[in-house]
UniProtKB/TrEMBL annotation:
Keywords: Coiled coil, Signal. It comes from the Bacteria. The keyword Signal applies. InterPro entries: Immunoprotect_excell_Ig-like (IPR029050). This is DUF5067 domain-containing protein. Residues 29-56 form a coiled coil.
Amino acid sequence: MSTRFVLYCIILLLILTGCNRKSEEEQIKEGMDEAKKELTTRAEKIQNEKSEEKISYEKINDLPQSKDKTIKHNGVKIKILKAKLDSASGQNAENKVNITFIIKNDSDRDVTALSTFQQNFEVFQLDGNKLVKLDAVSTSMYRNMQNEIQNQNEIIVKNKTVKSVITFQTINVSSNILIKSKHLQEKILLKLN
């Protein structure tokens, strides 16, 4: 009888051990599922925050207008000359604006016109009661802007000045363009020609 009792105890112990292992596996699986859910929730939250990020027209409108449409930052001076509608023939031509600017490099580092413009400015257009950030697009080739287009990616060394152009996809052809400095609390308002 005592042998039977020991045998029953061993069988019961093996069963309980097997049950505990299954429990541990289930716990690990549940923990992994929880971690996945948490990561998914965080990613969704970040995505929602980005998509819900709205730019306040009043906030930007309250910024001071830059003097002479010029911004100086980090040893680079950028002067905005004009914003002109793209007059190229073809589809969506009326929805592009060419912004012509002069850049002078007073810093010890080499820069390019396009990258410096994009590092220093955000370009917006008013759509109803909200500001919409415009996306940079490729510039159409024109004879009268050939030099500016060639200067887009030219390396600008210290004490050199270059005239260039950058193009943005607009949302309409009637609203003004607002250029906001990323580093300074200034704006430049341009009327479309």
